[in-house]
Amino acid sequence: MNEKVDKDCIFCKITAGEIKADIKYKDDKILAFSDINPQAPVHILVIPRKHIATLNEADGDILGYLVSAARDIAGQEGISESGYRLLVNCGDMGGQEVSHLHVHILGGRKMNWPPG
Ligand code: AMP
Ligand code: ZN
């Protein structure tokens, strides 16, 4: 078995093209696609192609790459100037529902603080 892929992981299936997604960006390391249940006018998820379950298992190289790409994708979406939020939920208490690392890009409306 290829340990970089979890056969039961929904985001690995999107990466493999087995589940359709509205792809916003892709390269050899990462993929970005629209969230299926958007919480803001712009809601995009940026994920590593490799299956990394949570932020706790991610090294600095991929984290830097994901955040840098998320910043650039926000620019492509036209929300750099108005502002946006990058968010990573980690584990149960962090509210993570899909166990494949992802960075949320949220924008196009005023974000609330504190989050729920
Ligand atoms: P989290 O709670 O941080 O794990 O976020 C998981 C996110 O994945 C949620 O915002 C879901 O709406 C989103 N999601 C789940 N399945 C899909 C899918 N097939 N395509 C796009 N987004 C998805
Ligand atoms: Zn996965």
Word description of this protein:
- The protein is α+β, with helices and mostly antiparallel strands and 116 residues long.
- It has a single domain (10-107), classed as HIT-like (HIT family, subunit A, 2-Layer Sandwich).
- The protein contains 3 helices and 5 strands.
- The protein is globular, with a radius of gyration of 14 Å.
- The N and C termini lie far apart (39 Å).
- Adenosine monophosphate (AMP) binds at residues 10, 19, 21, 33, 35-37, 45, 89, 95-98.
Task: Give the gist of this structure.
The protein is 23% helix and 22% strand. The protein is of the alpha+beta class. It is globular and about 40 Å long.
Strand content: 15-25%
Question: Which stretches of 5+ consecutive residues score pLDDT under 50?
Answer: none
Q: What distance separates the N and C termini?
A: 39 Å
For this structure, what is the CATH class? Alpha Beta
User: What small ligands are held by the chains?
Assistant: adenosine monophosphate, zinc ion
Number of helices: 3
**Could you state the CATH homologous superfamily?**
HIT-like
**Helix and strand composition category:** alpha+beta
Record field, number of beta strands: 5
Keywords:
binds zinc ion, alpha+beta, 3 helices, 5 strands, globular, HIT family, subunit A, five-stranded antiparallel beta sheet, 116 residues, binds adenosine monophosphate
